[in-house]
Amino acid sequence: MDLATFAVQCLNAVQYGLLLFLVASGLTLIFGIMGIINLAHGSFYMLGAYLAFSLSPLFGPHFVTMLVCGTLLAALFGYLLEWAFFSYLYQRDHLQQVLMTWALILVFEELRSMLVGNDVHGVKPPEWLAGTVALGELMTYPVYRLFASAACLLIGAALWFTVNRTRLGMMIRAGASNRDMVRGLGIPITRLYRTVFAGGVALAALAGMIAAPMSSVYPGMGGHVLIVCFVVVVIGGIGSIPGALIAALLVGFVDTFGKVFFAELSGIGVYLLMAVILVWRPEGLMKRGY
Amino acid sequence: MLQVEGLNTYLGDSHILRGVDVSLPAGTALGLMGRNGMGKTTLIRSVMGYVKPRAGTVRWQGAECTGQAPERMARRGIGYVPEGRGIFPNLSVRENLVMSARAGVNGQRDWTYERVLETFPRLAERLDHGGQQLSGGEQQMLSIGRALMTNPLLMILDEATEGLAPLVVAEIWRVIALIRDSGISTLIVDRNARQVLAHTDQAVVMEKGRIVLAGPSAQLAEDTEALHQLLGV
Amino acid sequence: MTALNRWLPLIAALLLAALPTVLSSYLQDLVLRIMVLAVFALSLELLVGTTGLVSLGHAAFYGIGAYATVKLSPESEPGNLLILVPAAMAAAGVYAAAVGALSLRTKGVYFIMVTLAFAQMAYFVVHDTKFGGGTDGIYLNLRPVLALGGHEFINLDDKRSMYWLALAALVLTYAALALIRRARFGHALAGIRVNEQRMRAAGFATTLYKWAAFVVAGMLAGLAGFLVAAKDGFVNPEMLSWHESGAVLLVIILGGLGHLRGAVIGAVSFVLLKEALSTPALVGNLLAERWQLTLGLAVMACVALMPKGLIGLAQRKGAGS
Amino acid sequence: AQQAPLKVGFMLPYTGTFAALGDAIEKGFKLHVDEQGGKLGGRAIQYFKVDDESEPSKATDNVNKLIKRDQVDVIVGTVHSGVALAMARAAKESNTLLIVPNAGADAITGPLCAPNIFRTSFSNWQPGYATGVIAAQKGYKKAMTITWNYAAGTETVKGFTEAFEKGGGKVVKDLSLPFPNVEFQALLTEIAAQKPDVVFAFFAGGGAVKFVKDYDAAGLRKTVPLMGSGFLTDGTLQAQGAAAQGLITSLHYADGIETPRNNAFRNKYAVTYKANPDVYAVQGYDAAQLLAAGLAAVKGDASKKAELQAAMNKATIDSPRGKFTLSPQRNPTQDFYVREVKGEYNVTSGIAVKALADPGRGCKL
Amino acid sequence: MSEVLLQCQGLTRRFGGLAAVNDVSLDFRIGEVHAVIGTNGAGKSTLINMLSGEMPASAGRIELQGADITAMPQPKRARAGVGRSYQRTTIFPEFTVFENARLCAQAAFARPWALWQSASACADTGTIAHEALEAAGLADAAQRPACTLSHGAKRQLEIAMCLATRPRVLLLDEPLAGMGAEETDRMLALLERLKPGHAIALVEHDMDAVFRIAERITVMVNGQVIATGSPDAIRTDRQVQIAYLGDQH
Ligand SMILES: Nc1ncnc2c1ncn2[C@@H]1O[C@H](COP(=O)(O)OP(=O)(O)OP(=O)(O)O)[C@@H](O)[C@H]1O
Ligand SMILES: Nc1ncnc2c1ncn2[C@@H]1O[C@H](COP(=O)(O)OP(=O)(O)OP(=O)(O)O)[C@@H](O)[C@H]1O
Ligand SMILES: [Mg+2]
Ligand SMILES: [Mg+2]
């Protein structure tokens, strides 16, 4: 592999990593920080992609407006969802959430099939992001991918700031460890968690909307990303946003170079990485000091 | 300020509180005493709204608020230091304090981050430690500090001196006196009956879910016989 | 009441043994399927419900048991049960021993994910290499028999033999696990589930205990794998996929954790619920086609209304009467 | 006497990624039955349906629902190759007639072939081989292939390589990625670095959409021509949009086949279902035709299994795709079209290979 | 002089830059209550964690009856006779009080391979558990789920669980915290009874109790030992008064 190709491959790896991070960010919030084992995360992602598919004709060039509207819709949806299905699960064995979210996946898939059908769809990126930049003599790189990467970083930074630097973030984390005590301090945990859950759903949907023009929109698309997202969150150290970013980039590199050098067994790469990291550091890469 | 009448509380099937009456005027300190398992914590948790009483009323500043959610009670000005401390292990000391900071019901901000650290200098040295990593006593200080950060009108301290070094305990009693002087009421549960009586205006003794002795603390302190019988001191 | 309760598993086993005489071949297959799933679920129950180790890679041992059965069966003559069953369990057990040794360093969700990682590795090995026959899976040419000294005692080509073998496996698994839970070993495992720190302080080498439980669970899953291979005569990489691991986890959660009966009830209700909801003859064509929706809603209702799983329902009734 | 209706069991994906395919197959099948007045070989048809969930590990149990519970005379299914293989085993054991309307696994009409197992679609080898022929004819010398690391992919690629190298070209590298991974960028970079004359790809569904779009976005479409088995652009063109324009693929069906047979079929389908038929619908339709041919020979008496199967194997099916017969292994011997993407259609520009038969390697019939 | 059961030399534990326990050398003898007191965060619990094997030492050496056990894992140490209680209640909440104690007693009779024997029918562990509960004053509550105990009762259970392992060295981390006056008396009487045949390390902030029962007292401040000696010597030690006791005692 010559140097130029290597450089491009590195770029690919970073870009894929960032995309993974984007998709995993909502999971970091719901699973990593609130502590809900949410198998339906992939469905929220799919919801976002289908939102992009159905909203983009309405909004045309106003892509960012569409993102905002879609995110708000998803947040509202998440708020109701929490109220209906999760609010009474916190006191119970965490594994009940597994069952609940799994059932949600089934329902989502079926509703999607009933509402939008089973066809594969494409979503066009907005005109102003549709171009490409040249990369070496043969290749070009879509501007949209660069946009998506930038969005990932922005969202990641905002999320990190919210979780680690604001009182809201502290309350969320506190709630994950001791709900009763949080209430005793005068913080309405029920509403807080409902809102945060909505935020997690919104993030997942936002990721789906941003990814839609790159990945196309198809049935079962959520299931495919789900496991990788969990891998990212866990390798990074549950609840750590910088950890998730590093993990996502690592996965990006392992996946990219695994495909190039060990095509036969490239499927194993990511899991080997996870196993090695967790056996080496049983609490992930960036587990908080406390 | 706080008035509890005829409170009956069940935990599971067991009848724990059997008609408890307690009242706490503003700006005073009330000591709550009793042997282990007599229902002190249950009384506090019923007042805070963690458990719903079956019968009886809880009045706070004249308004009935029986069985209201703990967050409502806290918002109305009750600061709660639970037994077992309830520190958030995954938050640093600073975050434990900052997250709970709030102006009081009347907008008072007597207790600030700085003042809490001044009161517990040990915490200032441990700001970036996680709650999990603190020693038992440090956790206790943090728990008290955290409750103070909500600028309450009433502090409920359930075994707040547990695990604290004698010097710190003395400091806590000083703080309680201070709080009382600034017009904040306190409800104190503590194993050290002598200290409780020395630092409160009124005191009650519980036995098997009932109040069996009540009166001004100074007066109770005299009654060694009753104290010995009820508390074993 | 309690006496009946106590003998219930035995009564159920006897009933099950008699069933093939009255059931149609399809229903007999259905029961067979439930029994195999129950063995698989019971093996996981030892880990999750008893020891508190939530594994999302249990299908690896199941799959390895199944693949070992097929791989070790001779091309052109039937394999021998006496060799294949121990071999399948041993193969699964060996992998479990290795995975356990590595993954027990981690806890909680990290443990879930490490077990998943090792299972996925096994999955990709059979999925992406010639060894495992690739995505298409491999066939078992001839079903195993129990032959001793040239005399054939059991031939699994006979449906009823297969049925009774599975029943025997279920009964033995249940009995073994019941013994374990009753014995000091099981009590120690339960202690580890509730408070491992205390168990160590009391003097239990908890890692060793957990490892032993992990290996036993792996071997029992291997047994379930053997049964599937013998029943279907066909193994596929998907047997090792995380979907399968997840599915069996769902079964025991639905049934109710912490009880052997929960795992069995979970297996029964899961299969029957899905079967019923996707059978047009029962729910009508329209609904049958939307079985995912109805199954999803049914499970959600279960979670919402039954905090302790299906077993909780049975117990509450028991307590009330 | 009035004969009881013939029981036809569909075992198809009604949920999940392949749900649309299953739907089309069923519609195609029923369309033919309806055209015959709801009867085949004089017998009314009763349908049974089982969702196969595209889940091989549940396949045996699922197919047994049809065989044992519903006791169907014929099974039609399925899309997913792994599932189809398990079905083939069950069908073989119970000697139930099985018609595979899509799954391309070579083994079904290879090592696993049986007198009662028929296929009305293709073997994976076939479209790959046909595309290889086209690529070689175009004079390409150096090719790369790319696909998912699973049976359908590798078998298709094998067909391509066989034909391409027979025609004088050379496949310099096979790229693959685990199913259903859709992150192609690394492999596209690999292609750009190697600069082959042509790239052969096998993907389907969502992966095909993403691959074609990524290929275009990477700027490769203009420099390295992309060819593929027809599934790369079937049912996906609306989603692929401009990125797919000019793509050359090969399949046993195409959009612009202007024969009266095809036009009639398309009209009928469009009228009945308010949707355009695709290759899957055709395969389903032909499954019904094949069954009809067999039943006609035994006058609807499905219990005469040997005669029925023999008749089916001898039948010439007048398919919308053009007439085809079955190879001794019961796989279609059919024409493969050269197709080029124009707008939202796979327009045919002729036949790549006439009457291409799968070699049926490993079949002992 | 009586036999030294457990001792440590130069024991140190660092958390990052902080030396929570710094070069501490102590011994614990049969027939003696050795109280370790000190300011909050002085490192007493950390010391106990190291002695019991819960936490590895950064430096130093631990000996049990002369044998080096510094690297011995906690369970093995526990079986060798080192028992501990926790400052933060560490029980099995969903089991009954009796089961809590029996499980701890079982450690000495582990025999996990004896699958045919029922654990609850094991007479040895049952007796030990009963004795331990009796000693801690919880016999009445034996059949209640542990999570329904009051805070003080949980503290008693904590001690009972430690006793049930039949240790020779008792490392007690604030055993009296949360107990009322009566229970405190009972506990002190219990310790008095245990003294012969046991080495007891007592970490406690209740000075009345400490001075009543301890033969020897070690005072720690910020990870270091600032004084060791008889109760009277400690009571009057100026440094100790300034750092820890105040003027009340
Ligand atoms: N969930 C429960 N179910 C039944 N009884 C309970 C439950 N929780 C506590 N109890 C019982 O209620 C009684 C009162 O408990 P409470 O915690 O109020 O006592 P306390 O006075 O605070 O004691 P301590 O001084 O030990 O903290 C105790 O006897 C306890 O055993
Ligand atoms: N895991 C840890 N990581 C970092 N610092 C820790 C950790 N555990 C304890 N510490 C620190 O080490 C010091 C000693 O703690 P330790 O718990 O041993 O104190 P202690 O003497 O038991 O105090 P107390 O009487 O309050 O219980 C404390 O300052 C504490 O903050
Ligand atoms: Mg209490
Ligand atoms: Mg301590």
Question: Care to describe what's here?
Answer:
The complex is a heteropentamer of chains A (290), B (233), C (321), D (365) and E (249). Chain A is an all-alpha fold. Chain A is built from 11 helices and 2 strands; from the N terminus they run H-H-H-H-E-E-H-H-H-H-H-H-H. In chain A, helix 1 (3-33) runs parallel beside helix 5 (143-165) and helix 1 (3-33) packs across helix 9. Chain B has 233 residues and is an alpha/beta fold. Chain B has one domain (2-231): P-loop containing nucleotide triphosphate hydrolases (Rossmann fold), CATH 3.40.50. Chain B is globular and about 45 Å long. Chain C has 321 residues and is mainly alpha-helical. Chain C has helices at 2-18, 25-51, 58-72, 81-103, 108-128, 159-182, 184-194, 196-202, 206-232, 242-255, 260-277, 280-283, 285-289, 291-305, 309-320; strands spanning 138-139, 145-148, 151-155, 234-235. With 249 residues, chain E is of the alpha/beta class. In chain E, the strands form 2 sheets. Chain E has a 6-stranded mixed beta sheet, sandwiched between helices. In chain E, helix 3 crosses helix 4 (123-136) and helix 4 crosses helix 5. The longest helix of chain E is centred in the middle third of the chain and has 14 residues, at 123-136. Chains A and D meet through helix 1, helix 4, strand 1, strand 2 and helix 10 of A and helix 1, strand 8, helix 6, helix 7 and helix 8 of D. Bound molecules: adenosine-5'-triphosphate (ATP) (2 copies) and magnesium ion (2 copies). One adenosine-5'-triphosphate sits between chains B (11-12, 14, 16, 34, 36-42, 83) and E (148-153).
